[in-house]
Amino acid sequence: MRLTSARLRAGLLAAASLTLVAAVLPPPPQALGIGDRLFPDLGNPGYDVLAYDLSFTYRSNKEPLDAVTVISARTVAPLERINLDFTHGTVSSAEVNGRPATFQSVGEDLVLTPRTALPEGVPLHITVRHTSDPRGRADGGWVTTGDGLAMANQADAAHRVFPCNDHPADKAYYTFRITVPEGLTAVANGLPDLPVHRAVGARAAGTTWTYRTHHPMATELAQVSVGDSAVVRRTGPHGLPLRDVVPAADRTRLEKWLAKTPGQVEWMEQRVGRYPFETYGVLIARASTGFELETQTLSLFERSIFTDTGYPEWYVESIMVHELAHQWFGDSVTPRTWSDLWLNEGHATWYEALYADGLGKYSLERRMREAYQRSDQWRAAGGPPAAPRPAAPGEKIGLFRPVVYDGAALVLYALRQKIGTAAFDRVQRRWVAEYADSVAGTDDFVRLASQEAGTDLTAFLQPWLYGKTTPPMPGHPDWSTPKRV
Ligand SMILES: [Zn+2]
Questions:
Q1: Distance from residue 294's CA to the centre of ligand 1 (Å)
Q2: How far is the CA of 473 from the centre of ligand 1 (A)?
Q3: DSSP SS3 for 79
Q4: 11-37 burial string, b = 16+ CB within 10 Å, else e?
Q5: Distance, CA 482 to ligand 1 centroid (Å)?
Q6: From ligand 1's centre to the CA of 409, what distance in Å?
Q7: With a threshold of 0.85, does the pTM exceed it?
Q8: 3-class DSSP state for residue 455?
Q9: What is the 313 CA–ligand 1 centroid distance (Å)?
Q10: What pLDDT sits at residue 325?
Q11: Percent share of the chain, pLDDT over 90
Q12: What integer is the mean pLDDT of 289-294?
């Protein structure tokens, strides 16, 4: 093409120079995600977090905590900006690799702009000074308790507590430094350093408790407990250090339940192999969450499930085993995407049901037959196990529907019926051994099950995992789901 009009040529040149200007200025900060089907805004592209060092100073539930989040990461792409997930706190400063960075909140992202762009494959050291606010609507993150705080971040609420790459696909090591007033006890995931007492009159009088994880962890599994707590120690199988965190006033009353953990760990180890972490224990909180949560090495329970007399003992025990089983399934082996949630909940429900079966209270076969009868309804309401429907807006835990619990345990039962108990047990053991401290998804499970079965199970498992309706149960031709009219 040849330009013939001077006016047109001038116009085109002006447009071209505008394009050039646009090309050198980075686009305005925007909220980003890594494309999770269920939580598109979670996680951020361009870097891999190696470690978080989180410092919190707690005074009371009536005011925000002061916090410093230090992130050690590595870029995996050239970055002009660094997106973190963060909301519900006020940021006072940010540094990238030792130099101040500008910061801006966009949606639920905190976008940092370092002075110079970062190339791919370099260390990234981020420091953010901020507050972390436990007040307001309780929909994940900090949980206020009768005597302090606990944490419940699953699935997408860690970034209500600290700036992070809030997706389970990016696991990292953690150090927690929690300063609390004298008289309160702080506990977090992992093992403690010795607490450091600061003199009254110092700027932050109180005690700083430090904990470190010895294994990588997903943001959703972080736990920090502050309260008038007793830390009860005992030893589990092969010297595993156990520590439970309970309201100090309830220590004696709860001992009967705490004493069950060593036997439960042994029971799980007989089925799937060594416990995967450096310690375990239950955190019993004076809170009404409506759920229990498998926070890594320290599972969170509501006090009422142990103290309300309405629950049968076998039921409470099986719930304890559910959270314990998650330490292998969900914590050590973390889902690659949130659509893989069935691998967490299906397995935890499986061992919960197996344990109840062993106690002679509720047979696995009866539970699975009942699940089979309801499975089509569950699929209609929540989607198939491996492609669940997104939660409704504002319903943060709405993803946790029956289809990913008993509906997914039913998939495991179908697999066992198909390949036999010996091959099924080998699948379970290999799964937690080969993907320990790692992430894995549904395709990985199908591949591993096929290997152990000695035949490609894709065609068998596909309708179980992704079908709108429930396939026939191998070995139980008489099982049926009610026809919908
Ligand atoms: Zn669970």
A1: 7
A2: 24
A3: strand
A4: eeeeeeeeeeeeeeeeeebebbbbebe
A5: 27
A6: 11
A7: yes
A8: coil
A9: 19
A10: 98
A11: 87
A12: 95
